[in-house]
Structures are given as structure tokens and as C-alpha cells.
Amino acid sequence: MTPTNGPTRSPKFVSLIPNLMGGEGHIIPYHEAVSQATKKLGWEYEAIIPAHPGNQNLPLDWNGCLLDTDLEEEGNGVEKIGRIKDAFLLGLSIAQYFRNHSQGDQSTIIFLERFIHLQLFSLAVALFLIPRKNIQVWLLYRRDAHHDKTRSIYKFLHQVIHRILPQNQFKFLTDSELLANSLFDYFQEKITVMPIPHTDIKCPDIKCPEKEAKINKEILCWWPGSPRLEKGWDILKDITKEIIKGGEKICLIATENADFFPNSKGINLKTTKNNLTREEYLEWLCLSDIILLPYHADAYKERTSGIFTECIIAGKIPLVTPDTWMAQELKNYQLEDLIIDWDNAQKVCDRIIALMTNSSIHAQIMIMQKDFKQFHNLENYAQTMQEIFDKA
Asked: Which of 79, 234, 239, 269 has the greatest CB tally within 10 Å of its CB?
């Protein structure tokens, strides 16, 4: 890949990250991968985050300059109305950053990949207060905002940003074909589908001997991430309480704060610490046999799962819920056996045991892994970024 030469065609790419979510999920790995993609293109990169992020595992060059305001915190109606003021003040801090870091005629791309309507409002406020001639805004939608109660606010803010930016400087992105189609139907905006970039995963042939010795060769079934209802916390709580024939062959791996209390005649349980480093996360991914993704269909009908993508890239077997994006991806490879109903603990565990000796499942996963590696990679992500910029 050859970067476009010349000072006017080498932009500054700014990741706008108003909420780090305590370092949970893929926020940090995602933007680290974005930074690597910009370096491939010869672009400048900056990440701007809250001034006091409270996370010790951040890249040293991420600029903590934004107002520390959690616009996503739960609250009553009065508190939520009060957050409009907080969103306005956040917008002022975004504007202050760009005023202090203006580079004359250099193009600047503002990239926002995880946001709610209030954070989008903050961005609109900032745009009103800074020179916009050389500004592009790229929004990456991860969820079905077109179904939110606030969907009309998103559409209104889109219209505002469109009007104040130069023509063709407002770009809409997502990482799901299903979501792209739905978002287009509602917003009537062209949507570019991006690869998922944080996929540099190479599992060694020999697993970590220390951890493997402690697990006693059971089938390791990992439920990654923090306990959330939309990710099936309630489902796995119920499964761990059941008496299960053959359950001793299965070990569920989950975080300590999942608060599972397994039945002594059911499956086994091993806990990890609540906040894994990226290295620890990848170690557990490589050690596991099966990745459990009992995600609720209403939350993941069209949105992607970074964990699912990493699971396939690592060559692991996922178990997923019907009518989700993950299920659709598996259907494309005749892997319907990995799409299960979670309401019968015995059947779930029987399926897990059967899958471990199913050679055709493993063969299909390898085919899917190859295709995923070809699309979801840093090189393809960088190439797509260049194509978007060139069309502006």
C-alpha cells in the first residue's frame, strides 16, 4: 500500500473517545489498531480522551484533554436533562483541543466509533466553534440507533453536521452488512462497511502449561468480558445451577464478578480476574476450546461482536444465539450446529461434548477462519480508510 504523498493529502486522524468504559471491551485495542493502520498510510494519529481516564494500560501518547463527564450514566429524568449541559461543556472541551492543535491547511479526520446521542451533540457543538474547511467527520455505528427512542435526535444531528461541514466531508461507517442496510433505510446515508482491525491473533500450538495443568484437561468454555445481561449473564447463571450429566467434563471460565455458584453435580467453574490485560485476554482465548456467546438476540440482531470475530480468527468454536449477527455469519459456512437455544442446560452441555469430536465442524471453522483473516485485518482496514479519504 502506497500512502498518498503531499502535505495536503496526508491528514491527521483523531480518535475522539469521550468514554473509555473503564477499559472494558475492545475500545483500547480497537483504537490501538486504528493507530497502526494510520501509520501504514503515513498519516498522523492522535487519540483524545477524558483528562483523568483512570486506566493505567493506555498508550502513552493518548492525549487526556476532554472534560471528565459520563454522559451514559443511568439516572432519573431530571438528571438526564441536566446532562444536556454536560454534553455542551464536553463540546467546548473538544473545540478547545482542536483550536489548540490546528495545523493550518492540513486535513483533519475526526473519528467517533462509540457514542450515544449526547456525545454526538457534543461533537456538533465543537464543530460550530472551530474552522471546518479542512475537517472531515467519520461516524462508525456499532448498534441499531435507528431503533432507539432517541433515533430522531441522531437524524437531526446528522442534518446539522451535514450543513455545517463542507460537501462530502461527513462519512458513515459500520462493521456489519446487516446493520449497514438497516441504517441506510432509516438515515438515507451511504454506509461503508469496515473490517474489524484488532485481529492480530496467533495462538501457539502449545498452550500455557501452568494454566492447563490446573484445569485437568476439561473442555474449556470461556465466557469473555464483564457480566452483562445482554451478553447472557442470566442464561449462564441458570446453567451453572443445574444438575448436569457429564458436567464434570466441562469447565466454564468467567470473571470473578459474574458471581456464579455452580451446582456440585453440574459443570465446573474457574474464574479469572475481572480486568484482563490484552495479553491475558489473548492467552485465555488461545487456551479455550469453545467460546460461549449466549448474547440476547434483541441486542445483537445486527451488531457485530469483536469477541466472535477474534474467536474465528483464533480458530476456536463459538456457540451463539439464533437470530443474531453471529448466527448469520455461521450460517454462511453451514455451521448451524453452533447456533443453539440456551434454555436447556443438559442439551447445551451435550452439544458442547459432541462438538469436540466433530471433525467436520473443525474443518468448516478453518475455512471460515481463512475468509475472516482475509477481510478482518489491519491492511484491509487501512486500505478502506484510504479509499474513504480519497473520495472526499
From this structure: 239
